[in-house]
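HOLO CASE FILE
Compound: iron/sulfur cluster
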Amino acid sequence: MTEKPHAQTTQSAAPAQNPLIDPFGRAVTYLRVSVTDRCDFRCVYCMSENMTFLPKKDLLTLEELEAVCTSFIDKGVRKIRLTGGEPLVRRNIMSLIRNLGAKVKSGELDELTLTTNGSQLAKYADDLYEAGVRRINVSIDTLDPYTFAEVTRWGRLAQVMEGLEAADKAGLAVKINAVALKAVNHKEIPDMVRWAHGRGYDLTLIETMPMGDIEGDRTDQYLPLSQVETELSDLWTLTNIPYKTGGPARYMHVKETGGRLGLITPLTHNFCESCNRVRLTCTGQLYMCLGQDDMADLRRPLRTPDVHGSLSDAIDEAIGRKPKGHDFIIDRPGQKPAVKRHMSLTGG
Ligand code: SAM
Ligand code: SF4
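Model generated. Tokens follow.
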């Protein structure tokens, strides 16, 4: 596949004055922003069917989200990923995307990306490209329309496929994210890899993480990717490659399909030593680790700096508390989730 172009930058930004370095010497250069906890799907591993969403009044406005992003950019963040919930269901989300995209065009940011379920892509793909987005992650766990409807509860595969067509036409590079789920898509994984690589997409498999209460026991869903890797290497020639996208996936080249396969393995292979990211929720809470409960409230310093101190100081203080790693354990039946919040709050 020919590599799609990355976003054009017109000038190089000056290095940050006070870069964010955590207590373990890791530079924080990547911010993930969950712009909404709401979603038009109800994936079984992510949400319960009757989710209670946050009251709208608790959300940061799009202007406030941009102000926090700008403060991080001033401190050396080079990559921002918008996620959710479903980022494209937040009203007027394109205004935030355009403003952050302008920072890519000016060289203040290296990349602005998005993780989406694809349901709204047919509507937004051209606008995303125009705003400066060049790569998106689209989450698809199965290519079977019935299984897709079961896993997402409210989703339709055909709508996501239309979204992918639109993304291709717009020139967006697509990576497919698939959560590996025992008894759901385990047997289908080789077909999904063939399909994704046939379309020129990378595919990344993700181990299901114990986040938030869902209906059912996660041990029923958990499929260790170490097992999948062994199975795929019986089928194909897999070669580890040093390719990196700034995230936690490690990549392999699949000789027979000619494409890249990523594995995100928080459970079977801890990747925390190279963690460069923090996560902002739509209510302004900063989580320094996806797998820990500690967070810093940025909304108060953002709204009332005279009472709660400056946003900049609050960010510095939070990074000073970034923990060494997560505490995910999943293979004990009846185990409580490692963290109480759902993935849709902090973003995947
Ligand atoms: N709605 C968008 C989507 O589905 O791509 C963005 C948000 S979603 C929370 C981001 C990613 O997290 C998706 O790829 C999803 O499959 C994954 N995810 C959600 N809950 C998860 C869990 N408990 N364990 C592992 N991955 C999860
Ligand atoms: Fe929505 Fe994404 Fe969670 Fe599925 S994984 S329910 S699409 S936020």
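CASE NOTES: The pocket of S-adenosylmethionine (ligand 1) is lined by residues 39, 45-46, 83-84, 86, 115-117, 139, 177, 179, 206, 208-209, 211, 343-344, 347-348 (CB under 6 Å). The first strand starts at residue 30 and ends at 34.
CLOSED: yes
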